[in-house]
Amino acid sequence: MTPHVEPDPQAGAAVKAADRAHVFHSWSAQGLIDPLAVAGAEGSYFWDYDGNRYLDFTSGLVYTNIGYQHPKVVAAIQEQAGKLATFAPAFAVDVRSEAARLIAERTPGDLDKIFFTNGGAEAVENAVRMARLHTGRHKVLSAFRSYHGATSTAINLTGDPRRWASDTGSAGVVRFWAPFLYRSPFYATTEAEESARALQHLEDTIAFEGPATIAAIILETVPGTAGIMTPPPGYLAGVREICDKYGIVMVLDEVMAGFGRTGKWFAAEHFDVVPDLMTFAKGVNSGYVPLGGVAISAEIAATFDKRPYPGGLTYSGHPLACAAAVATIHVMEDEKVVEHAAHLGEKVIGPALRELAERHPSVGEVRGLGVFWALDLVKNKETREPLVPYNAAGEANAPMAAFGAAAKKNGLWPFINMNRTHVVPACNASEAEVKEGLAALDAALSVADEHTA
């Protein structure tokens, strides 16, 4: 298939030149990157100015849950811009109220009050602030193999190497090991063992830190960029029990896992757990206009009934973003996007990835649910040695770079982090599109296989 516009390499070169002259890119050594100039996108695809089209198996940054340029969401943004393009957050605005109502209807339990932010990191910042003020305690426990955002508190809560350069002694932050059976830090051999030992480790950590000093435990319900490690049965319920035992606020980070990504509105539904605070962003409006937020329990909301909450944002609940959220949620309902994501995971993606694992020596483990999957790539299936070292760069990362180049050559834009590739297409991608991507992934894995022992 061809792009929706004629190739225009000269225009692409101009875009690239302006980018290189003036745009400062995140997480990058500026002189070592070569960003692709994007000419357009629609549905599950995007294309460049040279006429190359790519099937996006990253959903942007795992946020275009209903794909690019959905006409109903685009129309809602246009309509809202003509009606009321912006308004200060201290006022009641119809579209802001409606977005909050629709979100609250879908969050588990009594998470019925919504504090709007501009994105996931700000949601984490405010959730932690709420927990600290509610409990009068300061410490927050977070897991290794996690990502919570790049603002001051969120980056310190993060467990992956992106934290290192900004780690300020992790003021108030205590880290622990969450369960991950494939690379178990607890020498477990079954999911039951991994869950029990991880919970004991967490409770031991709390005991030695002092339960009365701990405000919150924050976990990604299903960790995203860190590897899509679905928690074993009983783990999140066990964390809930520990939080209740010690008066600790349970915060679930659903910035990436929420809004259909796992085949449920929120991943917490898979585990029958209700946190005290839940953060969201990304899929709430498919990223069309920046929006995030915190869903707040009745108990924590009551803390601020007579006591002002000391936090706010100029663009909290921005009308354009909220209009996009309202339209996105209606699209997801009307087109049964959440159910479709569950179907893709159970009937298409999961079985296909497990079949790939049987044929490719580079695939150590397949894990995931809905349209939220990861392949753990290894040098040796027996030893489980990662295909590249932890946080590899340069020549050490050559095997993963070669795999990525092969995928792009076959028209697939892959999500790659360390020794993993994630399969995270749009929640409404068609079966045909997903199978197209899986075929390209199959071919690219043959390149990864060349680096196995």
Explain briefly what this protein structure is.
With 453 residues, this protein is of the alpha/beta class.
Question: How much β-strand is present in the residues?
Answer: 15-25%
Instruction: Look at the helices and sheets and give the structural class.
Output: alpha/beta
Helix-strand sequence: HEEEHHHEHEHEHEHEEEHHHEEEHEEEH
Q: How would a textbook summarize the main sheet?
A: 7 strands, mixed
Strand runs, count: 16
Tell me what you see in this structure.
By secondary structure, the protein is of the alpha/beta class. Helix content is 38%, strand content 17%. The chain has 13 helices and 16 strands. The strands form three sheets. A seven-stranded mixed β-sheet has the order 4-10-9-8-7-5-6, with helices on both faces.
Keywords:
alpha/beta, seven-stranded mixed β-sheet, 453 residues, five-stranded antiparallel β-sheet, 13 helices, globular
Write the SSE topology.
Elements lengths: L8 H14 L15 E5 L2 E4 L4 E4 L2 H4 L8 H13 L10 H13 L6 E5 L2 H16 L3 E5 L8 H6 L15 E4 L14 H19 L4 E7 L14 H12 L2 E5 L23 E4 L11 E5 L1 H6 L15 H16 L2 H23 L3 E7 L2 E9 L4 E2 L11 H12 L2 E2 L1 E3 L2 E4 L7 H19 L4
Parallel strand pairs: 3-14, 5-6, 5-7, 7-8, 8-9
Antiparallel strand pairs: 1-2, 2-3, 4-10, 9-10, 11-12, 12-13, 12-16, 15-16
